[in-house]
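Readers of this paper often ask what the protein records in our data store actually look like. An entry from our holdings is shown next, in its original layout:
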Amino acid sequence: MEKTELSKAEWLSKAERYCARAEHCAADVRRKLYEWGAPADLSGFIEENLYAGGYLDDARFCQSYVHDKVEYQSWGRLKIRAGLQALQLPDRDIRSALDMIDETAYFRNLRALIRSRMSDPEDKRLRFLLQRGFTHDEIKNCE
């Protein structure tokens, strides 16, 4: 069976459906378009239209990403920042989202991680927490 070529509008519609299902950033959309085999020259057109239609919003994505990484994966600020920077999101949106972290939940997660690793030697526990993106000061203040 031959693959049929999609029009600009059909590629845009497909990208809109992808974005409507979950929060995504422009890097996610570019990767998905590549996986789908979309022509490379359509990427800019599709991104522009997704931003204009409200399907993509960097600030909203950053807030969602930060919330999910703190709540569900117990990541620290440093690892979250690195993840957002890897997606080439604007620094102002990253800073704003990180400023909105619920400190109570953040430090509750850190304390839970410390408790879960109490049987580990101190240097191994510290290395684990640093890899999760917590700073030395945050760790020291929670121990």
Remarks:
- The mean pLDDT is 94.
- Residues 73 and 109 are 9 Å apart (CA to CA).
- Residues 58-73 form the longest helix (16 residues).
- The chain has two domains: 8-56, 59-142.
